[in-house]
Amino acid sequence: MDIRDLKTFIYVVDNQSITIASEKLGVNQSTVTKRIGNMEEILKGVLFNRKTRPLQLTSLGEKVYLKGCLILKELEALANFSYQVEEHYTKQVKIGIPHTLANDLIDYIAFEAKKTDVLTNIDISSGWGRSLIQQIQLEEIDLATFMIPSNLNIPADLLFSKIGTLEFVVVCKRGEAYKYSNFEKCSKKGWILHPEGCCFRESLAKLLYERNLGFYINREVFGLELQLQSILRGEGLGIFPKPFFDKFSLKNNGLERIELKDFPLHLNVGIVRSQTMDNEKARSFLEIVKKRYF
């Protein structure tokens, strides 16, 4: 398998667009399509459901994406070996951020880490929650932060340090909250959500299925800011950590929270560390996340 084909596939998934992937890679769209086709031919299966917009991964595509991310990280690490001078080398701390938190946390963590004595050499990347958990288990990354909905469990073998809890809120276009007096009515309106792999989506689906309610996805939108814009246009409802909704509301008052007595979920906020991660570095990272949200 050509590594360029794999890299192209990862870019298409991360950007949910062949057009954006082609621009970032500096190739035309036909080349991107051909590279995806090369992979599907080798794997003897389909990676994307091409009837959906944006593109959705098939079950095979999800497995290839998770494994492909690990392969690319290993190749990147191998390429950097020649630059590591043993006597002066400070081990790089690899930090994972869920896609849902990336815009809010990456720059903040990079800035705050420079103020510490132990996180001076960090590499931050983002990924879906399931991918980050797998990377922690395989010790491909050292630390990750999560906001885990209260109806989902962290795998028992992970070292999870809880920082606190945040409200998980259902949001609609301003002036329409009166229409949704209970969670069932919300479910009938339909949702604006991330593609598969997001724990917020997984949590919502679990709650709906447990209550025998339909799971209607009106739009799949990558990025919390874009989701909020979609709700602003009246295209559906969304679920968000309250600080994210509050931050958006400071500059745009076109949305409102739906007050629900039968929506029991909240978010457990914390960090996960690998088995070999230094305690001092883990504590320093925890304090950065804690400062951001608490």
UniProtKB/TrEMBL annotation:
Organism superkingdom: Bacteria
InterPro entries, per database record: LysR_HTH_N (IPR000847), LysR_subst-bd (IPR005119), WH-like_DNA-bd_sf (IPR036388), WH_DNA-bd_sf (IPR036390)
Gene3D superfamilies linked to this entry: Periplasmic binding protein-like II, Winged helix-like DNA-binding domain superfamily/Winged helix DNA-binding domain
UniProt keywords, alphabetically: DNA-binding, Transcription, Transcription regulation
Keyword tRNA processing: no
GO MF annotation list: DNA-binding transcription factor activity; transcription cis-regulatory region binding
Domain HTH lysR-type: 1-58
Family the entry assigns: Belongs to the LysR transcriptional regulatory family.
Protein name: LysR family transcriptional regulator
Lineage of origin: Bacteria, Pseudomonadati, Pseudomonadota, Gammaproteobacteria, Moraxellales
